[in-house]
Amino acid sequence: MRGRNQKRPNVQTSVSLEPSVAHLEYDILQTMRTHGRPLGSWTLHFVLRERGYTVSAPTIGRRLRDLEKRGVVTPATVEGRSLTRTGEKLLKGKEEEHLIQRSTGKLLLCLSRDSRKDLVDQLIARRAIECETAALAAHNTSARTVSALRHIIEDQRRAIARGETGVSEDVRFHETLAQASRNSVLASMVHLLRSHPQFNHLINAIRAKVGGQRIVDHEEILNAIMRGNEPSAREAMERHITRLINDVEKYWEQVFSDPRTQTVQIE
Q1: Distance between CA 48 and CA 24 in Å, rounded?
Q2: What is the CA radius of gyration of the chain?
Q3: Using alpha carbons only, what angle is made at residue 102 by residues 47 and 104, rounded to the nearest 5 degrees?
Q4: In the listed set 95, 129, 147, which residue is the last one of a domain according to the structure?
């Protein structure tokens, strides 16, 4: 718990609680499910305008066509479009992520001086384990592993371009790489360390705040694995997680006047 006289960080979270284009897809899907009948771009335009959006009906129409290509909504009819089963599943996942994002944003505002050490300790544990899984994945490299990791990176790139966090893709990348190590003990440890959604979103929010680049790091790791270069894969993973640690430290330096006195306890 934060002490009575401890300084509350005077920062804004990177997770906006206000309507924005980044949340357009989520609100389109949610609106379609709530109405329970086919909707067209103009109907969605008027409904979303009441929620604070200023996007035009043609913009919504383009987003609907993109969703159709991905199998999320049905093709257009005279009545409009509806969610598919894939869309229902996607919306459920987005709702869970949305709730985590909102709580993460609130948590980010509540972090105290006593919040740094637990974050850094988990990242240090990940670095020790994942450097080895990266090296083993390079040793056991295969076309299947490379293809899977490449697809995850592209999924993450598209997710971020749509205004999403890319956190689920980040977790998939690290867990897929751990499975590729062919060491079930290490893979289980990676899964355990990545099985806390709020921690994953919190690190993502902090890194976004200080300008960290996850996709670049992942590409460096993938390139080493493609070459089957164990030392390079280990070094690329070490650089990646060390950058995460440095971003956490940098964030605390921006928020608190004396980062040397900070140790962690997340409220």
Answers
A1: 9
A2: 21
A3: 160
A4: 95
143 and 62 together in one domain: no
Q: What is the DSSP string of 178-225?
A: HHHTT-HHHHHHHHHHT--HHHHHHHHHHHHHHT--HHHHHHHHHHHH
Where does a domain end: 95, 121, 148? 95
pTM of the predicted model over 0.70 = no
Of 197, 186, 188, residue with least CA distance to 128: 186
Task: Show the tokens assigned to 222.
Answer: 């993938």
3-state secondary structure 125-181: HHHHHHHHHHHHHHHCCCHHHHHHHHHHHHHHHHHHHCCCCCHHHHHHHHHHHHHHC
Strand partners, 81: 39
Q: Are 177 and 134 in contact (CB under 8 A)?
A: yes
Examine the domain organization and report whether 115 and 219 are in the same domain.
yes
* pLDDT single digits (tens) 107-151: 455 444 456 787 888 899 899 999 999 999 999 999 999 999 999
Q: Which domain holds residue 119?
A: 111-259
Quick one: tokens of 132?
């080895």
180 is a domain residue: yes
